[in-house]
């Protein structure tokens, strides 16, 4: 696991260097949320240089430029998850969709099709989102492919982590039994574990030139077994969640569960097993017999039980709404600190990202808000990714300007 985190940190720092052309910056007089163990800081100073946070409340401030936050709230950039951002432009236009492939298996890497210039990315920044976990829709198999993480700078090369998590869908089926899919996953892990042990034993007696190279699919499952790749599994029913907890214990998996509609029924088991869950904070009606116990209070109940929760905004075209979903969770019993963690630090911890909190050494993904970020009327005033400031004007803003500004262009163009 240590190797996994070290290699990912190196990758993250490499991605930061490509964005770190801005001068050093000191943000002063800020109310800082998400500052790790330090809690909430008032009248705080955060110093950024070379894409990273290099100091918090230093005795002396030295930076190329200074920004007075005037007491406003500074948070880590929000992290979206479980969507197709950058892989789909218009859902109804087949040729603009790249998230799925009928023949896809666990080796499917959709990051090759990620479009950093998607019109949906700038709109997501308006909601304070600076990074996003993108998942494939895959094909017919339970293995949908590999998730990746991209920053929302809109720059080429903004994919920070490729082939980051193996995404699996389990649970209810319209044809066949869920038991078959669970058995398929368990057998795949068991067979790979045995093959890996056998290969290690044989390779110990062979010269490097004689060692057999594993197949691509074997490499993926081996990384999961070694804890070098997150296993991201979609399941809802309580019995399914318990079965996944058993798999985690049996194979020592780095497991994250998504969906988890019935999670409140097994909250203690999830907390004891240290399994994070990704939930939709607005999911309050049963969509099937697997989700009879979901409600707007689920987030608060899970957090109270000690479960690490993460909020997802599944629509690639409306990630902006993530902060409103978190706000609704606050209205239904979750604390603001827990809600903030659900879109920042919890995501970063679960997926081993070098961002998600305002701490020295972290990537400088920061958002300055006009007021409480979970309030409807608040807005992003300034946003930084890797220490570089990015705007929040989207295609929506440009269209509004076009249709509300007097122009010599024909009326059909502006009205």
Fold and architecture overview:
The chain has 415 residues and is of the alpha/beta class. It has a domain at 78-354 and 394-403: Metal-dependent hydrolases (TIM Barrel, Alpha-Beta Barrel). It is built from twelve helices and 16 strands. The protein has helices spanning 2-19, 119-125, 178-203, 216-225, 238-251, 267-272, 298-304, 322-331, 336-342, 345-351, 395-404, 411-414; strands at residues 25-32, 41-49, 52-56, 65-68, 73-76, 78-83, 129-134, 143-151, 159-169, 230-235, 255-259, 277-279, 309-311, 366-369, 380-385, 388-390. The strands form two sheets. Strands 1, 2, 3, 4, 5, 14, 15 and 16 form an eight-stranded mixed sheet that branches. Helix 3 (178-203) crosses helix 4 (216-225) and helix 8 runs antiparallel to helix 9. The protein starts with a helix and ends with a helix.
Entry keywords:
415 residues, alpha/beta, TIM Barrel, 8-stranded mixed sheet, 16 strands, disordered N terminus
Strands, count: 16
Gyration radius, in Å:
22 Å
CATH topology of one domain: TIM Barrel
Question: Approximately what portion of the residues adopt beta-strand conformation?
Answer: 15-25%
CATH class of one domain: Alpha Beta
- Helix percent band: 25-40%
Query: Unreliable stretches, pLDDT < 50, 5 or more residues?
Result: 1-18
The name of the CATH superfamily of one domain reads: Metal-dependent hydrolases
Q: What string, H for helix and E for strand, traces the elements in order?
A: HEEEEEEHEEEHHEHEHEHEHHHEEEHH
CATH-level-2 architecture of one domain: Alpha-Beta Barrel
- Tell me, rounded to a whole number, the average pLDDT: 91
Structural class: alpha/beta
Q: What does the main sheet amount to?
A: 8 strands, mixed
Q: What oligomeric state do these chains adopt?
A: single chain
């Amino acid at each position: 696991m240590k190797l996994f985190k070290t290699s990912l940190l190196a990758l993250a720092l490499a991605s930061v260097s490509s964005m770190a052309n801005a001068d050093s910056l000191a943000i002063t007089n800020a109310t800082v949320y998400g500052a790790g163990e330090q809690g909430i800081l008032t009248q705080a100073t955060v110093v950024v240089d070379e894409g990273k946070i290099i100091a918090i409340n230093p005795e002396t401030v030295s930076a190329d430029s200074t920004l007075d936050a005037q007491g406003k709230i500074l948070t880590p950039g929000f992290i979206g998850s479980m969507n197709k951002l950058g892989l789909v432009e218009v859902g109804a236009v087949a040729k603009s969709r790249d998230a799925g492939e009928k023949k896809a298996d666990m080796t499917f890497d959709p990051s090759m099709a990620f479009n950093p210039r998607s019109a949906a990315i700038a709109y997501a920044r308006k909601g304070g989102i600076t990074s996003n976990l993108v998942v494939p829709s895959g094909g017919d198999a339970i293995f949908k492919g590999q998730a990746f993480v991209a920053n929302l700078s809109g720059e080429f090369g903004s994919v920070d982590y490729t082939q980051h998590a193996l995404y699996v869908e389990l649970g209810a089926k319209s044809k066949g039994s869920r038991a078959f899919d669970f058995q398929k996953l368990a057998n795949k892990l068991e067979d790979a574990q045995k093959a890996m042990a056998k290969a290690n034993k044989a390779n110990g007696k062979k010269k490097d030139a004689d060692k057999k190279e594993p197949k691509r699919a074997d490499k993926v499952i081996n990384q999961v077994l070694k804890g070098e790749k997150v296993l991201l599994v979609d399941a809802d029913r309580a019995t399914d969640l318990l079965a996944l907890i058993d798999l985690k214990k049996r194979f020592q998996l780095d497991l994250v569960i998504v969906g988890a509609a019935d999670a409140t029924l097994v909250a203690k088991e999830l907390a004891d097993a240290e399994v994070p869950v990704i939930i939709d904070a607005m999911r309050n009606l049963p969509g099937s017999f697997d989700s009879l116990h979901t409600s707007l209070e689920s987030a608060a109940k899970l957090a109270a039980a000690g479960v690490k929760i993460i909020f997802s905004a599944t629509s690639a075209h409306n990630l902006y709404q993530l902060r409103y979903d978190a706000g609704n969770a606050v209205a239904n019993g979750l604390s603001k600190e827990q809600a903030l963690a659900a879109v920042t630090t919890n995501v970063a911890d679960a997926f081993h990202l070098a961002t998600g909190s305002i701490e020295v050494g972290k990537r400088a993904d920061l958002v300055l808000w006009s007021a409480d970020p979970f309030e409807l009327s608040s807005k992003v005033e300034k946003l930084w990714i890797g220490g570089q400031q990015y705007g929040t004007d989207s295609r929506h803003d440009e269209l509004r300007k076009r249709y509300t500004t007097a122009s010599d262009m024909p009326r059909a163009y502006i009205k």
